[in-house]
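[RESIDUES AND BACKBONE]
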Amino acid sequence: MFKSILISSALVLTSIAAASAQTVGIGTTQGGATNQLATAIANEVSADGEIQMRPQIVANTSQYIPLVNAGQLEFGVANFPQTWYAVKGEGMSSEPNPNLRMVATLFPFVAGLVVTEESGIDSFADLKGKGVPRFPDDSLGEFVIRMGLQAGGLTYDDVTEVPVANFPRMYEALKQGQTAISISALGARPTYDLEASLGDIKFLSFTEENLPGMEQLMPGIFLYEVEASDDLPGIDEGATIFAYDYMLWANKDVDDAVVSSVFKSIYDNSDALIASSPIWSDFKRDEMCKNSDLEYHPGALAACKDLGLN
């Protein structure tokens, strides 16, 4: 019996040592809210010392999703609609990515579509005839822009399409006057940059009548009421924008001990994450194991159990 205990202890220590020595990557985009949250996670995980996490930056989320699915990258972050489509191989994803496993629900990602106050645009219907970003087909940006146009009873035929490859290019197009609208997360750095360049901006509001069409394009989306604020760009008068949960996920073959360690680092450093950016303001660590119809990684489930989370 004593020998068995020693063997079991050795196995546990070996597993911990393997996790401690490992450097892992987390896929993210260049700039924007996704980059902010992935960098914050990597910083806190690495600071704990057991796992060294390094952001791997590419232009679009759709470029690192298949890398994680193939096991060439360990972790990734994306909003729930994009993750859902990626796993299923529908909508934004032309191929299924069956090897993705959920690690944690992070927070409701609050975003919307902004215009400049001086533009005179007060509703999505006012975009008719204006310049609008045209992302690559079936990309996240393309779905969000379509959602805004649909809310105004419009299609791409009713506006002037301005091709953009990614979010940084979209922000530049608005700054240069090529477009009249831009996607942005509430409180994200680009909103401050846009106001610094263009003056006051404002989020356009969605309505309950828009919601069914929004849900068809973006599974898991919901309306989000934002009260007027002098501190956050774009909501001097308040707005009804949208939100969806942001997810951390991993390849199914990432070691359980590594996934558990990453999960617990996020849980233990929740205060530091919330302080890192306004986009973390709604993060609730007790909701990291929030149920979804996507499969969780065994290492994440083990961490949920250890921490007494449902």
Residues 1-15 have pLDDT under 50 and may be disordered. The CA atoms of residues 110 and 243 lie 4 Å apart. Strands lie at 23-29, 52-58, 75-79, 100-116, 131-134, 160-163, 182-185, 201-203, 222-226, 239-251. The chain has two domains: 2-107+246-306, 111-244.
